[in-house]
Amino acid sequence: MSVARVRDIDIAYQLTGVGEPLVMIMGITGSKWHWLGFDRRLGEDFLAIAFDNRGIGETTAPEGPYTISQMAEDTIGLLDAIGIDRAHVFGVSMGGMIAQELALAHPDRVRTLILGCTNFGGTTQILPAPEVYQRAFIVAGKGAEQATRDILSVNLRPDFMEKHPDVVEGLVRYGMEHRMKKHALAGQMAAVSEHDTASRLHAITSPTLVLAGDADELIPPQNSIEIAGLIPQAQITFFPGVAHMFWVEAPEEAAFQIRRFIRGQRG
């Protein structure tokens, strides 16, 4: 693990593999650990850059609220610190929101853009069902372990959880041992709630791939269809029967689609 000073925070990051740089931006409450080896898988073809967003893991957790644009600038600052001019940009969930803002503000820094299980925010986004939102984000009255298990239950499909108890228990154990600070969680949630790129996505010039599981309850897959329709010439791929954390449930297929897309853009 390495640390880079970026503006007001220290960002913890790790580099895996060699080749063209691919920066991986994690979602809300997720740290670089939550790639669960997907960065190593992509590191077989790229220089995979995994890091902890503002407020999580081993990165500084300043008082919030945070903004998606602020975290996009954090990502650019990290690339500057590492000495990378241009990178493939891959973000999931909140990380996909950060990736959208990064591509809009710094198109010259983006080789390709890969948006996973995300939305464009604002009033026209497709929201999860109220029961799903309650399980994921309402923690009042719950113990730490129950809150962690409830969050996982909307990120992974039930049959995957039944077949892979080792993965589930590892995620629960990590969540219990690395509790996010309340002010940092509030900061990230504020950033997500204010995110809105719907009227600007047409300005993205980077070759774009949109990825999502078609059984995603947390960010319904219709959001991905809407995003792909707004970004010029964007491609879209769904993983059948897969929930929100597609890089955990379908890592081989997800890595294949990312490699296929980037190789196709090379001509």
Description:
- The structure is a single chain.
- This protein has 267 residues and is an alpha/beta fold.
- The protein has a single domain (2-265), classed as Alpha/Beta hydrolase fold, catalytic domain (Rossmann fold, 3-Layer(aba) Sandwich).
- The chain has 11 helices and 8 strands.
- It has helices at 38-42, 68-82, 94-105, 130-137, 144-155, 158-163, 165-177, 182-194, 222-230, 246-249, 251-265, and strands at residues 2-6, 9-16, 21-25, 47-51, 87-92, 110-116, 208-213, 235-239.
- An 8-stranded mixed beta sheet has the order 1-2-4-3-5-6-7-8, with helices on both faces.
- Strand 7 (208-213), helix 9 and strand 8 (235-239) form a beta-alpha-beta unit.
- Helix 2 packs across helix 3 (94-105), helix 4 crosses helix 5 and helix 5 (144-155) crosses helix 7 (165-177).
- The termini are far apart.
- The mean pLDDT is 96.
Give short descriptive properties of this protein.
single chain; about 270 residues; alpha/beta; Rossmann fold; 11 helices; 8 strands
Topology:
Elements: E1 2-6, E2 9-16, E3 21-25, H1 38-42, E4 47-51, H2 68-82, E5 87-92, H3 94-105, E6 110-116, H4 130-137, H5 144-155, H6 158-163, H7 165-177, H8 182-194, E7 208-213, H9 222-230, E8 235-239, H10 246-249, H11 251-265
Parallel strand pairs: 3-4, 3-5, 5-6, 6-7, 7-8
Antiparallel strand pairs: 1-2, 2-4
Helix pairs in contact: 2-3, 4-5, 5-7
